[in-house]
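Review box. Two proteins, two foldings.
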Amino acid sequence: MSPGASAPGMRITVVSGSELRLQRGRLGFLASQRVAPRAQIDRPTFTAEHTNSTSLARGFRQHIIRAHSRLCPAGCIGKIFCPFLITMSNTILIGAQWGDEGKGKIIDVLTAKADIVVRSQGGNNAGHTVFHRGVKYILHLIPSGILRRSKVCVIGNGVVIDPIALLREIDDLRKLGVTVARNLLISDCAHLVLPYHRLLDEQRELRQGHTKIGTTKRGIGPAYGDKAARTGLRMSDLVQPIVFSKKLQAKVIEYNRILHALGAKPVSFREVNESYLAAGEKLRPFVGNTVVYLHRAMERGKKILFEGAQGTFLDIDHGTYPYVTSSNTTAGGACTGTGVPPHRIDRVVGVMKAYTTRVGEGALPTEDMQLTQMLHNLGREFGATTGRKRRCGWFDAVATRYARMINGIDELAITNLDGLDHVDPIRVCVAYRLNGKRLGVPPSDARQLSNCEPIYEEIRGWNTPTHPAKTFSQLPPAARKYVRYISKLTGAKLSMISVGPARGETIVL
């Protein structure tokens, strides 16, 4: 093929200049070379054989790869030079605040273009609420993709699973007409949450008094504790009755000693063994090696959406410790919790509310009781998992900027904009003040964070409903200015705005 020709279905754009910037993943490499005018090849659908594509690229004397491309469909994994511009489709979606950002709805919207939706961490302490055709669905362990036909949902190895709660969730979905069959896969490496975990969780919380963490008492922390101590039971054990019973008996003896010392009732080995083995038999068809499944799916070009639970500031490492959950809720957790390597990730989408909320204990620098009461009076901001009232505050750009840094957020989805429809003026925290010093990032120490004073800027409200808007231009001018402003403060591109709970109340930019 001559340099001036193009293959069918291929778009070629001539680019002039002598500098070629090559990027692989997040690491940039600069290659300076004198070249003739070069061709940028963009082929969304790859059909040619690799030998043909290589000869084609040689004809143009250039190999150009897009910044976020990490894989050539011809097999050039990990190579800098590739003959095609590739738009990868693997997306991590995380919460950029303290959880409850409305991730469930955004995941539901993004799932329309995904083939597989994967949950990578947490347990049934998390909850995603999705409204579809007038029906409210609350999901705790199963990914939101279950609500769409032809999508495969995967519960990854980083999740801790209460088998009884999972079966209850499956039954509830089936009663609502949702199919749960071959479209759900569960990692055989996922750890189990058992009754003694819940009892220990409750006892620890009761003894904390005013310093309690605010846990859901679902046993998530103790289950992750067993995982870290290498003494936990996994899904692979549950589907092997003899193995499971033997391991469970040893754990029940161990935990009953602890529970006795705390003054709690002991756990019955027989009851737990029978109920969990029965659950294991029902879950057996779903259990397998999800790492292999996901990698084979990527080889076939399937699009994967990694569904985050909780939020950045509940991360065990990067959150407001100790008022955090027991897993990595940030973008890195999506890789360790599924077995998908970082270089196979295309983009990270951060979800944040137009204001700030938090459930449980711990610092919330912008907390405002008047705003909290207003939102509660509207019937908003009650936890999907526990029903607890959420604490509410003004938008905290210090927190979201840090979240963008930790997660490598490429795009932002702003939710609950309609919650501010009748608030005027609107306050935005742009920095903290601690002991007379201005801070641009949140302190790591929980006590210091609780002593931080927010520095605010005020923005005009719009005093009109935003939910009728279907496009960005239909939003009130003041609302457009507000979302642009908080996106700029956060430091990432705005891609979606939610103005209501329904799928149709989403503006895609």
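Next protein.
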Amino acid sequence: MLANARTSQALRLEAVQQNGRMRQAHALQAQPANSSMDAVSQLLHAPLNRLLFDASHDCVKILDLQGRLLEMNANGRAIMEIEDFSLVCDRHWEEFWPEDFREQIGHAVKAAGRGEASRFSAFCPTGKGTPKWWDVSVMPLLDERGEPSLVLSVSRETTTLQKMSALTEHHLKEAAEMRNRLNALLDAAPVGIGYATGAGELVLVNAANRQLWGDHPMPEEVEKYREWKGWWADGSPRHGHPLQPGEWGLARALQGEEVAGDLIEIEPFDAPGTRKTVLLRAAPVRGAGGEIAGAVVAQIDISEQVHARRELRESEAKFRTITEAMPQMVWSTRPDGFHDFYNGRWYEYTGAPAGSTEGEGWNGMFHPDDQDRAWDRWRHSLRTGEPYEIEYRLRHRSGEYRWVLGRALPIRDASGTIIRWMGTCTDIHEQKLVQEQLRRGEEALRENDRRKDEFLAMLAHELRNPLAPISSAAELLRRAADNAKVVERAGTIISRQVRHMTELVDDLLDVSRVTRGAINLEMNPVDIAEAAHAALEQVRPLIDSRQHQVAMRLAPAPVHVMGDRTRVVQLIANLLNNAAKYTPPAGSIELAIASRDGWVDVVVRDNGSGIDAKFLPHLFDLFSQSERQPDRSQGGLGIGLALVKRLMGLHGGDVFVESPGVGQGSTFTLRFPAASAPAAEPAGSQPLQTPIRDRGDLRICIVDDNNDAAVSLAALLEVYGHRVQVFNSAEQLLRADPGEGYDVFLLDIGLPGMDGLELARRLRSRLGGGARLFALSGYGTREDIRASRESGFDGHFVKPVAPEVLLAKLQACEAAG
């Protein structure tokens, strides 16, 4: 605005000067008649007045009472940059001023006309437009009557002063604004701030400082800091000691010290007896020359942080105590999965140096086969926040990899963000082994169940096979009873098939006895060559029927083993029977005996069907057979080799098998402990076999609830001349009052109602020792035989009874009388 005023004013002055030149030209033609000019001339005529007028450094102007410019001193003309005064003379003074100040100029001129003086500051550019500020005084000049006749104006240039004043005002305004911002900043700061002068006088504190300390005094010097109560809380030897005036951070900063961080406890002025923990910093404030002009202190209340830190330490101490007391290995990680804690149990278990498994070092403790799986599962949990659970093998300090269950759960803050993972490792090695054993046991049970089902199917098949010819032979006997040849052939068929069924049942009973440990072995030195010949004779019919070639290779000298002769023959016969069955017709079978290092080996080798390698480990299992053929051409129940294995164990030996594969034959080896030859028996010591007579004369009573079995046995005995009577229950016999009418009683043990044992006891109490009592039973264990003997029986026969055995026993009874 001043620039525009300055331009406008310069144009006006130019116009004024132009008008002045025109008036001057006009004045040359007319005589001036201006009384005001005369008065000016008179006023300045005096030498002193002229001297003072021209000597003034200010711009001095004389105006008439209407404000027209009459005279201006030389310095004024120079300051106003007016080169020709006549061009501006007689013009109204207010025309020289900017529009904004003209009204003020007019009032000042009028006031002078009334005899009043005035003073003001205003802006007016020079004749050449130079901007200037003026301190203007306007006053009246009085005539001899004391009336205002002229106006005197003295203008002193104040441009520089005005600029300085404006600048000062601007700086003061900025300083005030800065001070307001600083005060706002200090009051908004959560830190207590104070400032002290170089003498120690506390002159400035913010709101946070008063909130921290309460309504506190403003000490004038350091010594008065004694009013402030504080104690060291830094854990040093001075911990708990009160601060002296010179120890306060502000006092030390006034000595030039940079106080980095004092930890103290204070007692606020408005809360006596309470304490706050404060972290304090202080620094000196230096002047331009480096001298200490004051000091500033900053204090922050960290009571909550200290309390939280104390609780955290206590919590961590409890956590470590709990984790060290736990039997599990405990670990913890940051949210990103970085392992930063393991309890002592971990290091004790793994034997790893403390700290060596932090970060990602834990994965190296896992079994190589489990590492990738464990990493993948851990990364999945870190990515999704799902609980971590996995079983893996962890290296024990012994070097063994043991099964461990690893679990971890995320810990979340109030917003649900994961802030930590807590995990445990639990040794489950023994449980894992038990589980594996149970799994294998379940598989074995399923396998045994499968074999049992197959065995039952095979047993049904094997029992039906002899039943068919027996049924046919029985029908022949009924249809052709008068044909002697048919009767003889039918009897031969029935006898052969009954023997086969008896062998099957005997095998089953043997397995049962061996499994239950109920078998009795009569251990004596056995000539193994003689036993081998006996076994070969037993199997000879099968071998001859299949046209096998048998080669025997015996030891050069007699060899004996310690065993039960009957069982030794049974063992060798079993292997020969297997070789004969599983070797195609016209095959080769070798039976060899060798002795070495206190052992005797009986080897049976064939060139038959051989054994699949995958089946070899299960060959001696109960009910185990290689792949069953639909035609059952080999027959058998799959218990023979299992029986061989168990009987060899009872003999203190073992059995082995080798086979190159299917179709390449097999080699079985029985290994017996060797024995010394027995002492020679005197001549005639062997009992003589008594031939069975065709006729007998005993009174025999048969009691059996199976009427067919009783009647058929009675018919057989009657054929041999005995007198036989049949009863189907114990009660039926007792009602008939047996008295002393019988020589022999054949009693079934499993009778309905009163069993055979009770019946025997009653008969023995009635008859005393005059009659012979024999038990007929499907059971033949030691316990069964002992029970029958204790009940009064003279003998125990296991069904089915071989006719020759029964007849021989009856013949012996008849001979004894």
